[in-house]
Amino acid sequence: MMKKLFLVALTLVLLAGLTACNPSGSSTSEKTYKIGFASVTSMSASDAVGGEEAKDGQLQQNVTYALIVLDGDTIVYLGFDTAQNSAKFDATGTITSDTPKVTKKELKEGYGMAAVTGGLEWYEQIAALEEFAVGKTLAEFLAEPTEIGEEGHPVFTGDIASSVSISVDAFLEAAEKAGAAAVEVKGISSAGFASITSISASSATTGDEGTAGSVTFNTSMAALAFDKDGKIVWASFDVAQTSRNTITAEGVATANTDLRTKMEKQGDYGMAAASPIGKEWYEQGEALNAYAVGKTLDEFLASPTEIGEEGSPVFTGDIASSVSISVGDLLEAAAKIKSFTVEIK
Predict the structure, then answer these.
(1) Contact predicate 217/281, CB 8 Å
(2) How many Cβ atoms from other residues are within 10 Å of residue 300's Cβ?
(3) Rounded Cα–Cα distance for residues 240 and 219 (Å)
(4) Which among 24, 174, 210, 276 has most CB atoms closer than 10 A?
């Protein structure tokens, strides 16, 4: 009897010790981090040239995005990527190329930076930048010294310059925006992000009813965080849509200057009036973020859909009352995260 009482007492002491070491009784996988996702878009335009020195013009969109995970003020993960896409046209305003590409990180050696510079490839420089950020506060990372490089954009100076020679202004801005958007989330074990881009382009026409050509870029982005069981604990979806980029029948291009994402445009996007559920895009985006939480990625991707009026998948079932937007590219971006998930330590 005394032996049994001793064992019970010993067990209680051990349990008390464990609780003292971890007062909340939670495991390390239930630690609270701050996580945020944001993007920065830029547009450039060049006119086409005709005659003997014919040269295509170009409209180009660059969407640089960042996912940040913070332990207090300290960066435990900071990931970057850039979706760079273009549409080309000749001196008559006729589209000659409008095929979207995967991101710079996904292109790897296919991006072709090393062959030109003789240094590291783009994805290798980004890997070095991501590693460099870990352990710093966001303020320290953003304060890293820079100077204006040959292309007129900031480049790092100091030790990191030997590994990262690319322009960094968009990365710094995206990281700052991601930090500002960061929210506390409990139980993050891994996280990832990805994008998919589509391009819609039409050539200019001439004659009495001639019209300008146009190009619209849509870069759909998804960022997700998972717990130790693979359940989504945080989600962020957005689309960097740059529309109203125009081309004249003489091959002159004009790029739109409103570079806000659909979430950033809020009520300015103007969907509510035309929406079958009367909700703006950002409201539907917030509902989609909430809907993903609690599901595994496979469960989320298996959400029932049907082809909507615009020819793209839309949700059916209960979620359709909150999310009526086309979700094909958003689901495709989310599916790609399987290949781009990192462990959060």
Answers:
(1) no
(2) 21
(3) 5
(4) 174
| Residues 20-35: tens digit of each pLDDT | 444 434 444 589 999 9
Match 């007062």 to its residue by tokens. 23
pLDDT, tens digit, 9 for 90 and up, residues 107-165: 999 999 888 877 899 999 999 999 999 999 999 999 999 999 888 888 999 889 999 99
Backbone dihedral angles phi then psi of residue 128, each to the nearest 5 degrees: -65, -40
Indicate whether 228 belongs to any domain.
yes
**CB neighbour class for 57 (10 Å; exposed up to 12, middle 13-18, buried from 19):** buried
CB 267 within 8 A of CB 305: no
* pLDDT at residue number 290: 98
Residue 58 in any domain: the answer is yes
Residue 195's beta-bridge partner residues? 221
Q: pTM for the full model?
A: 0.88
pLDDT of residue 14: 42
Number of domains in the chain: 1
In 109-254, where do the E strands start and end?
Answer: 146-148, 154-156, 183-186, 190-202, 213-226, 232-247, 253-254
Q: Is residue 340 part of a domain?
A: no
Contact call for residues 34 and 69 (beta carbons, < 8 A): yes
Residue 172 lies in a domain: yes
State which residues form the domain around 110: 28-256
For tokens 């130790």, name the residue: 228
